[in-house]
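Need a sequence for this fold. Nothing fancy.
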């Protein structure tokens, strides 16, 4: 069978590319190895509870957000029921609590009131965030590097930790802002401030939302759009090889659920699959990426997560809470010491921060009455990779017990309400997503792996493109959707003379 375009993988980057192409009259085939779509944008059900795999909240979807424009073009924005958040999260350390409100004025006023000695610096910081916010409006791509001010270029080569520390001396304020850094990386003093600043600005200024029925509501809306416009989705169909004719792609070899192997042909391929998987397995290590040496890139963090089903909602005012041990300080040497020899298995006391996402605090329609909670901390596959299968099961149970103990330390009232507990490690995310090391964000968003340093969206073979967390502009739900939009606009213009959504 021949198609105008083939897409490998059904993460949000692949789905939004498929939807935009299909809406533009292009015949697409999308292949997904699992029986459900979405990648990290997925839910799973256990005993009446429906859990989010990875979604905390999506930034933006305000009137100037490219995602809003695209969803309206696809005629799906109004088909999704949205719940808006009031704050991004709460920081809790000991008896102290601080929130990060949403809305520019709300956030600035609250933070200035709580940290009056930093009020002037907060105004400067928010002015800088405004620059990042404007940089990412509407056209969905960063401006050319040459157009950046010298000041902005300086921040492209600075870490989140160093910039936040240069602005603010108050330990609690730094901790509060670093709560957002953990959305992307396990060490603020390695995380690119450019990456951090763009994300923070889009959340605080553009708002944060979550679909009422979870991330699968977005996935299903995109899938329906794809099928309604004449394209096809193949589930439980794993692409095993990208077929090449000379120096250009010509199709894919697919193993279906029945174990049968079938070839599908197209002169254009978009890889939504993880970039290392594409090069190592689908291209058989025969090619290198044209813009960088991928084996020199470090992989982003993974996580371990306790999924908890409760018989009723907790008396908890916050949807998302960043929990920090009482004696933990935001200091670069401390982070360096922790992560130099970081092993959560052998040294559980090194886990100083957890995040509790209490979906029961929102007006969602995901589960039966009660509440579902994700209690998580960042983790690395290397902490689990050396175990045999039997050892892994034993250590996984130990860590599950440890996470539950920590959860009940913070929320003792939950003990009598627990109906279900599931635990996922980085190995779990490797199995379900093919992401190397169970990576959440593709390549780690460090200084030299963010922005223009991130791998380009075009591959080493003619007409092979990438749309995922591993390429530009970066990871997160918004990042992968912008990646899909960007590469689709390029393909439509280059191959079909269609200028997508241009007046």
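Here you go.
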């Amino acid at each position: 069978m021949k198609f105008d375009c083939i897409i490998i993988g059904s993460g949000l980057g692949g789905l939004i590319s498929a939807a935009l192409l299909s809406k533009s009259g292009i015949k697409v085939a999308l292949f997904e190895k699992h029986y459900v779509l979405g990648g990290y944008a997925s839910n799973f059900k256990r005993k009446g509870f429906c859990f989010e795999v990875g979604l905390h909240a999506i930034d933006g979807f305000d009137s100037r957000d490219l995602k809003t424009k695209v969803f309206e073009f696809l005629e799906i924005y109004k088909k999704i029921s949205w719940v808006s958040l009031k704050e991004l999260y709460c920081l809790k350390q000991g008896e102290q609590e601080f929130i990060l409100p949403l809305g520019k004025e709300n956030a600035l006023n609250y933070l200035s009131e709580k940290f009056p000695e930093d009020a002037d610096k907060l105004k400067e910081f928010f002015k800088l965030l405004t620059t990042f916010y404007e940089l990412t409006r509407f056209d969905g791509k960063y401006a050319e590097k040459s157009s950046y001010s010298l000041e902005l270029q300086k921040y492209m080569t600075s870490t989140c930790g160093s910039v936040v520390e240069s602005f603010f001396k108050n330990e609690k304020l730094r901790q509060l802002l670093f709560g957002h850094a953990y959305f992307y990386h396990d060490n603020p003093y390695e995380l690119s401030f450019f990456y951090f600043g763009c994300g923070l600005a889009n959340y605080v200024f553009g708002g944060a939302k979550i679909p009422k029925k979870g991330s699968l509501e977005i996935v299903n809306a995109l899938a329906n759009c794809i099928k309604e416009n004449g394209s096809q989705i193949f589930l439980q169909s794993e692409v095993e090889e990208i077929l090449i004719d000379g120096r250009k792609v010509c199709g894919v070899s697919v193993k279906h659920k029945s174990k049968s192997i079938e070839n599908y042909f197209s002169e254009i391929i978009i890889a939504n699959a993880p970039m290392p998987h594409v090069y190592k397995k689908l291209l058989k290590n025969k090619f290198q990426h044209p813009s960088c040496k991928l084996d020199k890139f470090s992989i982003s963090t993974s996580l371990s997560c306790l999924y908890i089903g409760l018989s009723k909602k907790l008396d908890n005012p916050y949807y998302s809470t960043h929990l920090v041990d009482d004696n933990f300080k935001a200091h670069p040497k401390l982070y360096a010491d922790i992560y130099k020899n970081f092993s959560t298995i052998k040294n559980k006391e090194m886990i100083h921060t957890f995040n509790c996402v209490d979906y029961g605090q929102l007006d969602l329609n995901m589960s039966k009455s009660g509440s579902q909670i994700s209690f998580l901390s960042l983790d690395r596959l290397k902490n689990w990779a050396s175990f045999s299968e039997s050892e892994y099961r034993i250590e996984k149970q130990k860590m599950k017990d440890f996470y539950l103990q920590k959860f009940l330390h913070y929320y003792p009232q939950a003990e009598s309400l627990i109906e279900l507990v599931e635990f996922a490690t980085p190995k779990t995310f490797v199995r379900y997503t093919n992401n190397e090391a169970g990576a959440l964000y593709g390549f780690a968003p460090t200084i030299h792996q963010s922005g223009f340093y991130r791998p380009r969206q075009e591959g080493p073979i003619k007409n092979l493109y990438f749309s995922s967390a591993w390429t530009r502009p970066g990871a997160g739900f918004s990042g992968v959707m912008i990646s899909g939009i960007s590469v689709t606009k390029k393909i439509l213009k280059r191959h079909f003379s269609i200028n997508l959504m241009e007046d």
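For context: The longest strand covers residues 237-245.
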